[in-house]
Amino acid sequence: MTARETEIATYNFAYLDEQTKRMIRRAILKGIAIPGYQVPFASREMPMPYGWGTGGVQVTASIIGPDDVLKVIDQGADDTTNAVSIRAFFKKVANVAVTTETAKATIIQTRHRIPEHPLNTGQVLVFQVPIPEPLRFLEPRETETRKMHALEEYGLMHVKLYEDIARHGRIATTYAYPVKIEGRYVMDPSPTPKFDNPKMHRSPALQLFGAGREKRIYAVPPFTEVVSLDFEDHPFEVQTFDQPCALCAAENVHLDEVILDDHGGHMFVCSDTDHCEKRRADGHRGSLAPETHLALEKTEPAQ
Amino acid sequence: MTDEPLLRVAALSKFYGSRVGCENISFDLWPGEVLAVVGESGSGKTTLLNCLSTRLLPSSGTASYRMRDGQWRELYRMSEAERRFLMRTDWGFVHQNPADGLRMTVSAGANVGERLMAVGDRQYGKIRATAVDWLSRVEIDEDRIDDAPRAFSGGMRQRLQIARNLVTGPRLVFMDEPTGGLDVSVQARLLDLLRGLVTDLGLAAIVVTHDLAVARLLSQRMMVMKDGRVVESGLTDRVLDDPRAPYTQLLVSSILQV
Q: Membrane-spanning residues where (chain A) (predicted)?
């Protein structure tokens, strides 16, 4: 008998077998105990290609329970291929409730953004990480970078920032901006825009990072100090945008540029779609917003 | 100058299995002194240098170093973290091939500044100013500061490597054939520069070379090695003008006269 779309898959709960989940949970616990330290783990083959979030999916699968409400975002959006597929995957293999609302979710798996809506105690943010090693492009030897982490030799990280200033007159790194966790480990916050770095600092939510291909898990426990590296005379700054979101008129949010036609027409809109929709539902209107707003069904319960 | 040595080496041996790397080497090195280690290739010069700079661990023997606070520390009993710290602050290591000692993908300025940032300098302006100063001291134009070393000639790379090592004001520098692979006119300028820097900064240095002319120009004292052992040591001028061991005599008489 072939399974229909709506049927619950006959896999173990949340796809991974229980032993694998225990192994990953152990890595997560170790990561939480040593904030920012990259814990090696036996990453499994997942039914998706590397680079599509195999690390994040394994972390989510290991921590998710039947009562959890899952939200998945891809560059801030709930409605892109990656987000839709991973959400559908967990609906099928774990039969959990899914949502697009940040406030309602207990687990948020993210690719390269932290939601604009402030996170709360009890929420878990799971990052998909392509390259967990912040020193990788400066020192290609893994043996050497692990030693550098162990001995806290982080001068090299500033060499990269020095190069930025020498070449561009300012720190031109805009994403995967290195941070120091609790005054000890230097960590790659995954390719989130540096706009999101301040949100990591003392966040009440637990932040977990999974890199499937590189087989590393690391974590930032709630209320942990996360400091972006900088120079005294070139302090850390986040991106600023000179216009508000074209749909919801939000300011001080991260915006995406959207091309409208082939005559150079473009607009800047919130990268966090949930935040944008919520603001439009509340009556905020940007310069290019349509007249009426279609309210979407945001939460789907478990079957 | 104090009357205490900077480095004390006693009965240092390194074996590769049953083969001898270097055997039973003992000497003292005083602050500001340049010691040349000469000998043909395979005589154990580089093994000795690598042992002294803790890049290799010896099979037996000890080496003690007088730290800046006057404390004597045994090198092979220090933790790896301490050794690496020493290596990037109080010591320098000039490789024969500059590509081994430089970061070829980052700019010259960052290469010089790396050690400063490693010891906690967080002022971009200050790091840059120091890099400019050091580049001029090793005769590299200031406008090359943002170029990567792969755009540099061999001689410039070697000078950049020297600047990178000296920027933290080390007291002891290890050099492995610093002029190897450079043509003679470039060699002459590099030696001139090295001699100036060593005298100005009062550096102690251990220079490994097979080139007796380099040894004569740079060093006050020299050790001649053969088959892993020291066959003769003494003041450089004495050893070169009045060689006593038969091997040293052979070595000195083998210099090409032009």
A: none
